[in-house]
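Try this one yourself first.
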């Protein structure tokens, strides 16, 4: 079995564990499906968003709405494709009405996110927005640390603004694009 197939099998087991657990039962009951993540289980870079929205809930994939289109554009600008990277969220069921994930929901999903990262073993973890950053890099302020690579417990992170927040905010959008362009340099140094 290839390394990639091995990793995919381990990720499938984590997904099955979530589905057979009673985790966030209220969220699960209100959502169409679990949005686990994809594409490349052997990726060097993992992107972690907040939670699925309406489009993601319908399609079963992360970042497939407007924010996802923007993410695709930024990936293309650094010569990357979705097939090269792995994209997931801290919370894996759509919160009702697209509200922010609750602290207890982030806490409940964190062990599963950590298990995913343990399997993928990326060189770089890019957090998108404060929810995934808070879960993995507690105590930081996104306004101060965005675009600055950070090594924490042996892992390299790059905290970025969330593409949905930056989509219609000119300054934040320009900053996110500039920060995003650092990914290849950060990877080259890691
Ligand atoms: N926003 C997120 O944080 N995640 C998604 O999957 C889509 C939008």
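Now uncover the answer:
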């Amino acid at each position: 079995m290839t390394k990639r197939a091995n990793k995919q099998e381990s990720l499938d087991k984590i997904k099955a564990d979530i589905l057979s657990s009673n985790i966030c039962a209220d969220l699960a009951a209100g959502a169409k499906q679990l949005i686990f993540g994809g594409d490349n289980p052997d990726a060097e870079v993992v992107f972690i968003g907040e939670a699925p929205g309406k489009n993601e809930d319908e399609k079963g994939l992360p970042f497939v709405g407007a924010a996802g289109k923007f993410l695709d554009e930024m990936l293309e600008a650094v010569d990357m494709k979705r097939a090269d990277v792995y994209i997931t969220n801290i919370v894996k069921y759509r919160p009702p009405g697209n509200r922010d994930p609750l602290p207890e929901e982030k806490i409940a999903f964190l062990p599963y996110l950590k298990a995913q990262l343990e399997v993928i073993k990326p060189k770089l973890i890019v957090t998108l927005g404060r929810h995934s950053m808070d879960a993995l890099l507690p105590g930081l302020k996104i306004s101060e640390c965005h675009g600055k690579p950070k090594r924490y417990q042996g892992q390299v992170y790059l905290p970025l603004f969330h593409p949905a927040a930056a989509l219609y905010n000119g300054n934040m959008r320009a900053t996110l694009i500039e920060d995003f362009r650092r990914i290849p340099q950060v990877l080259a140094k890691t």
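Discussion: The beta strands are 38-39, 45-49, 86-89, 124-128, 150-152, 155-160. The domain at 3-189 is CATH 3.40.470.10 (Uracil-DNA Glycosylase, subunit E).
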